[in-house]
């Protein structure tokens, strides 16, 4: 889907980046040379922190309430539940990385990757098209500025 | 602020039908799938004759167990669950959705029984129940499409499929009246119109429309070009209208041209979908898409054959080959491909709740029975085509046996998903009980 709102495009670009990164993780997890380069794991951890603290928090504070007001509360509720599950999986991933427990890290990473993919799937098909309809130019610009800040 | 789970309570999950409602449609479709292959096994020797001349018998039963029992049943369940998500409008009446199932299930079974047992007296009540179910479904679909917000391409396909549904039900009732009450009509022409309206009209256009939504969702790909989708839809609708006119006027050249137009529309659809798939965000497509791709190939092959048949250039037993490509290859193949992604996806959503995230879809996707089904379905399709082409009853019978084994594997997949969903609910209940006790 082509998105016209700044904020939808921004979230979509972040989804693309998330999928590309976690696809690399899945490939690494399936390879014999596990654990992979530390750099990839660091990037995953950093992206995860950004995703959880910034992307999720923004959606929960700014977008889900708007969806609920517009009668889209069912989808917002489902997505919020998935955020909670991803946060828990992210904590497990970080703990395993810190402990350098590679087997645990592989399991946690694969679960996290599947959860992220499923979540992106739902947001691309429900959240972003809804935002396209719900926002006007002014609120889109304001939200895009807030998100960048 | 993090919204508390359940904090968006107003209309919570309003667009998600209860699991028991959607799954009863899919469960019935899975059961009819098994019965359809059993009926084909029983009518293996009769298939080419039936395709050429029609008439009652187990082959007609096998055909309608597939079209009414599997395709229509699953289409009801899938559209009534997925369209509300795409159009952002809840289903108008849950009671009507349930009633439609209670009419369609015995109706399809009775109709198939009447056909298999050469008892026209059973066809009428079966057809009446099916048409009543179709009428309820048509109302639900129309209400959803009328109020739709967004997904204009899907909505346009929905309206076109609905128009075809009304016409095909009329043609079907006329055929039943012919068998049961001797209504004078040109049976061959009405049956051809009924086939075009059902295969390419209602089911075909619905499949094309839902593909605009489902394929991008499951492949994490951008939606196919809306312009291509509208052109394909307009061309397909024009081709169907022209084909109906050509059948009525006994104009074989016009019919061949209509099939050529249809082939153009199908080609545009497949190319547009493949282009979107090339731009997908995640490389692995999953095995379901092998089945989907074989289905798209069969769609194109069925229309290529439909171009040749009115011109007299088709190979012997072309009518049976055409039927196999259209019903088993295209419609059944595509439906089973999408259903194996829809069922685990929906089951995980239903297994979530009360603040817990949905379980992983992979944990609700038993891969072995699906892999077995894929192999058996494709082998059955290939043998069925070979058996009809060679007029070899033993090949058709072997194909039906493989198809039956595949249908049982698919039923195993479905049953295992239900068991996992039941376990998830049971676990939730136990946890609730423990929390209450504490």
Describe the structure.
- The complex is a heterodimer of chains A (149) and B (438).
- Helix content of chain A is 87%, strand content 0%.
- Chain A has helices at 6-30, 38-69, 73-99, 102-134, 137-148.
- Chain A is elongated.
- The model of chain A has no long low-confidence stretch (mean pLDDT 88).
- Chain B has one domain (19-351, 361-422): Cytochrome c oxidase-like, subunit I domain (Cytochrome C Oxidase, Chain A, Up-down Bundle).
- In chain B, α3 (58-87) packs across α7 (187-219), α4 (94-116) runs antiparallel to α5 (120-146) and α8 (226-249) packs antiparallel against α9.
- The longest helix of chain B is centred in the last third of the chain and has 45 residues, at 393-437.
- Classes of the chains: A mainly alpha (149), B mainly alpha (438).
Layout of SSEs?
The complex is a heterodimer of chains A (149) and B (438).
Chain A (H helix, E strand, L loop, with lengths): L5 H25 L7 H32 L3 H27 L2 H33 L2 H12 L1
Helix pairs in contact in A: 1-2, 1-4, 2-3, 3-4
Chain B lengths: L18 H24 L4 H7 L4 H30 L6 H23 L3 H27 L5 H30 L5 H33 L6 H24 L2 H27 L9 H24 L6 H34 L15 H23 L3 H45 L1
Helix pairs in contact in B: 1-3, 1-4, 1-13, 2-11, 3-4, 3-5, 3-7, 3-11, 4-5, 5-6, 6-7, 6-8, 7-8, 7-9, 7-11, 8-9, 9-10, 10-11, 11-12, 11-13, 12-13
Summary, kept brief:
Chain A has 149 residues and is an all-alpha fold. Helix content of chain A is 87%, strand content 0%. The two termini of chain B are 29 Å apart.
- Which class of chain B in CATH terms? Mainly Alpha
- Unreliable residue runs of chain A: none
> Architecture of chain A, according to CATH?
Up-down Bundle
CATH homologous superfamily annotation of chain A: nmb1532 protein domain like
Give the CATH topology of chain B: Cytochrome C Oxidase, Chain A
Strand content of chain A: under 5%
Structural class of chain B: mainly alpha
The major sheet of chain A is characterized as: none
Low-confidence stretches of chain B: 1-12
User: How helix-rich are the residues of chain A, as a percent range?
Assistant: over 70%
Task: Tell me the Rg of chain A in angstroms.
Answer: 16 Å
Order of secondary-structure elements of chain B: HHHHHHHHHHHHH
């Amino acid at each position: 889907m082509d998105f016209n709102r700044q904020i939808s495009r921004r979230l979509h670009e972040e989804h693309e980046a998330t999928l590309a990164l976690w696809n690399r993780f899945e490939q690494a997890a399936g390879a014999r040379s596990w654990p992979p380069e530390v750099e990839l794991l660091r990037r995953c951890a950093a992206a995860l922190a950004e995703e959880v603290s910034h992307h999720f928090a923004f959606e929960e504070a700014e977008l889900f309430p708007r969806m609920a007001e517009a009668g889209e509360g069912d989808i917002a509720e489902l997505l919020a539940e998935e955020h909670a599950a991803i946060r828990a999986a992210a904590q497990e991933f970080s703990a395993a990385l810190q402990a350098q427990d590679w087997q645990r890290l592989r399991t946690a990473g694969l679960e996290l990757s599947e959860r992220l993919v499923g979540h992106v799937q739902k947001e691309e098909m429900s959240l972003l098209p809804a935002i396209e309809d719900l926002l006007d130019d002014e609120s889109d610009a304001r939200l895009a500025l807030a998100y960048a800040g | 602020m993090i919204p508390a789970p359940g904090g968006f309570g107003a209309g919570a999950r309003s667009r998600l039908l209860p699991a028991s409602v959607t799954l009863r449609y899919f469960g019935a479709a899975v059961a009819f799938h098994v019965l359809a292959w059993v009926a084909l096994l029983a009518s293996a020797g009769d298939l080419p004759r039936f395709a050429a001349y029609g008439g009652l018998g187990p082959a007609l039963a096998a055909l309608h167990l597939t079209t009414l029992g599997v395709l229509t049943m699953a289409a009801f369940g899938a559209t009534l669950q997925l369209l509300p998500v795409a159009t952002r409008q809840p289903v108008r009446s849950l009671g009507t959705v349930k009633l439609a199932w209670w009419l369609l299930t015995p109706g399809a079974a009775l109709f198939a029984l009447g056909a298999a047992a050469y008892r026209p007296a059973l066809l009428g009540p079966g057809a009446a129940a099916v048409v009543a179910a179709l009428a309820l479904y048509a109302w639900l679909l129309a209400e959803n499409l009328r109020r739709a917000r967004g997904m204009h391409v899907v909505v346009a396909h929905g309206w076109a499929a609905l128009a075809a549904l009304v016409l095909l039900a009329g043609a079907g009732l006329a055929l039943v009246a012919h068998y049961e009450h001797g209504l004078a009509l040109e049976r061959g022409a009405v049956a051809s119109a009924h086939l075009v309206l059902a295969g390419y009209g209602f089911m075909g256009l619905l499949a094309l429309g839902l593909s605009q939504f489902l394929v991008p969702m499951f492949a994490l790909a951008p939606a196919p070009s809306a312009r291509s989708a509208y052109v394909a839809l307009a061309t397909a609708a024009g081709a169907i209208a022209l084909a109906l006119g050509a059948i009525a006027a006994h104009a074989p050249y016009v019919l061949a041209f209509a099939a050529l137009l249809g082939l153009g529309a199908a080609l545009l659809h497949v190319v547009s979908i493949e282009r979107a798939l090339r731009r997908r965000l995640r490389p692995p497509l999953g095995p379901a898409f092998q089945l989907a791709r074989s289905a798209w190939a069969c769609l194109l092959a069925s229309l290529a054959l439909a171009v040749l048949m009115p011109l007299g250039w088709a190979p012997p037993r072309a009518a049976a080959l055409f039927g196999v490509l259209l019903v088993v290859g295209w419609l059944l193949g595509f439906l089973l491909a999408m259903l194996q992604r829809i069922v685990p996806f929906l089951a995980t959503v239903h297994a979530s709740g009360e603040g817990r995230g949905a379980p992983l879809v992979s944990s609700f996707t038993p891969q072995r029975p699906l892999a077995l089904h894929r192999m058996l379905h494709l082998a059955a399709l290939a043998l069925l085509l070979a058996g009809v082409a060679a007029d070899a009853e033993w090949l058709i019978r072997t194909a039906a046996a493989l198809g039956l084994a595949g249908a049982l594997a698919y039923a195993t997949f479905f049953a295992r998903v239900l068991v996992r969903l039941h376990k998830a609910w049971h676990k939730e209940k136990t946890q609730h009980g423990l929390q209450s006790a504490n």
